[in-house]
Amino acid sequence: MLEIRNISKTFNAGTPNEVRSLRGVSLTIDEGSVVVVIGTNGSGKSTLLNAVAGTFRPDSGSILLDGREITDWPEHRRARFIGRVFQNPFSGTAPGMTIGENMALAARRGRHGNLGWAVSGSMKQQFEEHVSALRLGLENRLDNDIGNLSGGQRQALTLLMATWKKPRLLLLDEHTAALDPRSAEQVIRLTNEIFARDRVATLMVTHSMSQAVHMGDRLIMMHQGRIVLDVSGAEKKRLRVADLLQKFDDIRRTEQLDSSAADILREAYV
Ligand SMILES: Nc1ncnc2c1ncn2[C@@H]1O[C@H](COP(=O)(O)OP(=O)(O)O)[C@@H](O)[C@H]1O
Ligand SMILES: [Mg+2]
After folding, report:
1. Which residue, 26, 191, 260, 270, has fewest beta-carbon neighbours within 10 Å?
2. How far does the centroid of ligand 1 lie from the alpha carbon of residue 212, in Å?
3. How many domains does the chain have?
4. Is the beta carbon of 42 within 6 A of some atom in ligand 1?
């Protein structure tokens, strides 16, 4: 359903700050598949998700959703099909608005016309039902300012709103990384419930090796703008945290070998 074909992205090209964030990434995601994305800092995980969401246009390559080329679509046009949750609990909800108003905005996503956010009686009842499913005790607090919620509560609500309209694709970028362990656990429980309920195709970046082995049906590891590991099916099920740590070690060792080889070459040519 999502097809990423050989995309590349270089930031600050031609300057001393040039970064080749994506170097020819290809990835096809099946309907309902949950793909976990891991990799060292700066390996291009967020850049990959941003390319799919349309934050920028890749320098080359193309992106297809349900067979339609969306490479040139602006971010807002893709937002109708894509739900997103970021690491920062404050980026997914609008401050200075109530919980109910935030939900009304989410419920209107992708609809044209009046963007007002007055919460009608029937809508309110619907919201209360949704929110009570979170088991965070928020159902009686729809009129409260969203700013009064904890990071975990906000993130759970953001996830609920991102999946409210059942998007074609869900992008989660380290959505529990900023939370305390207990809140992270709650948000992960909710994430798993949504995976089971909606079977929505997902790209989920995580820093947690435990989440990486226990969640999703496929795992990719990125390194220096490339996919260096792609595991699915029975192999994914068998995967242990120790295997992933080993893989990170292997990459580090190869890198050290590369840099010492570069040293030798430099010495040979001075
Ligand atoms: N908007 C940007 N401008 C300049 N450099 C960027 C931008 N976004 C990402 N980068 C750089 O691209 C590389 C990959 O970043 P990112 O995809 O955020 O890594 P990850 O999410 O895997 O930690 C990093 O070196 C980062 O500094
Ligand atoms: Mg990132």
Report:
1. 270
2. 21
3. 2
4. yes
